[in-house]
Structure formats: structure tokens, C-alpha cells
Design goal:
This protein is about 40% helix and about 5% strand. The chain has about 60 residues and is mainly α. The protein has a domain of about 45 residues.
Length: about 60
């Protein structure tokens, strides 16, 4: 078994009921309007920069993928 196979075998899967898209991304479901700002402040810099550059926004209760 290769190192990548071993890592894949022990990597945690998605929570029950969550489906990953083709990129392995999980949906981000916002429950309050300020949660996107909270996510941006805790996201990795490259993810926050992408969200800022693409005008990433959401409304209350919207699920982002």
C-alpha cells in the first residue's frame, strides 16, 4: 500500500448527510448573515483571498458549495 493510499484510507470522510463535490469540497451552509465574515476571518489566506476576489457572498440560509 502506498503512502497516499494509506492516507486516503485513514482520512476522515464527510459527515453523514454531506456530499462532497468533484473537487472534494464540502458545502458551507450559512445560518446567520455574519457567518460568511466569520468564515473569511478564520479561512486560510488563499481561500479568503479567492472569496474576496470573486465577490463571494450569500444570503441567510443559503448553502454555498
Amino acid at each position: 500500500m502506498s503512502a497516499s493510499d494509506a492516507q486516503a484510507a485513514t482520512a476522515p470522510g464527510p459527515a453523514p448527510g454531506l456530499t462532497l463535490d468533484a473537487r472534494g469540497a464540502r458545502p458551507l451552509h450559512l445560518l446567520a448573515p455574519d457567518e460568511l465574515a466569520e468564515w473569511r476571518s478564520s479561512a486560510e489566506p488563499r481561500h479568503a483571498a479567492w472569496a474576496e476576489a470573486h465577490g463571494f457572498s450569500a444570503r441567510l440560509g443559503e448553502t454555498l458549495v
